[in-house]
Design brief:
The protein has 190 residues and is mostly helical. It has one domain (3-187): Leucine-rich Repeat Variant (Alpha Horseshoe). It has helices at 3-11, 17-27, 34-47, 51-62, 71-77, 84-103, 107-110, 115-130, 135-148, 155-166, 172-187. It is globular and about 50 Å long. It starts with a helix and ends with a helix.
């Protein structure tokens, strides 16, 4: 697949789940297209569309390591995102990164990602968690923050307070994840 073919695929109308799956299969053998796909995510955020962000998330579900060469750019642009349709998949990517780094302790991630980059991601996750947006990005953000708090000790008390404050007004899915996160924080003595 060429860069032009990728652009055409992403801009030729709304993609279905099966379209995204086909596109991801074409992208898998071409990691050099991941940065181009991410640039399209940033363009679509300005336009209010989300084909690229949905494709980016699905590609990284299969090959999260494709993010590493552009991780600095990724975290630098997170705070600039405005469209919830783009924020949701990228919040999921943040969650996947935290799981790889903290839970799986994957050395490829642990050795490649700096504390400064983790802090940039953490700031953005807190912003998403406390902002007035849909619940899905918040759920991904709270999981990311739980794991980030394993490295940055001040995060867990702040996260706990935010969850206690927002639990009553959250959706059922939000409340379920918040309860699980609060239970984990209790187990850690927070």
């Amino acid at each position: 697949m060429t860069e032009k073919e990728l652009h055409i695929a992403l801009t030729s109308g709304r993609l279905s789940k099966s379209d995204v799956d086909v596109l991801v299969e074409k992208l898998l053998p071409q990691p050099e297209l991941a940065p181009i796909l991410f640039k399209q995510v940033l363009l679509e955020d300005k336009e209010g569309t989300f084909n690229a962000s949905w494709t980016f998330d699905n590609l990284l579900r299969k090959r999260l390591d494709y993010l590493l060469p552009i991780f600095g750019t990724f975290v630098e642009h997170l705070p600039q995102l405005k469209t919830e349709s783009c924020i949701r998949p990228l919040a999921h990517v943040c969650e996947m990164v935290c799981l790889a780094y903290f839970k799986k302790k994957d050395p490829v991630f642990v050795n490649h990602i700096s504390d400064d980059q983790l802090e940039q991601m953490m700031t953005c996750c807190f912003d998403w968690l406390i902002s007035p947006m849909n619940m899905a990005p918040k759920v991904f953000a709270m999981t990311s923050l739980y794991y980030l708090g394993l490295k940055f000790s001040w995060v867990h008390p702040e996260l706990k307070q935010v969850l206690l404050d927002t639990y009553p007004t959250g959706s059922t899915g939000y409340q379920n994840r918040a309860k699980k996160t609060l239970d984990k924080l209790d187990q850690l003595g927070v």
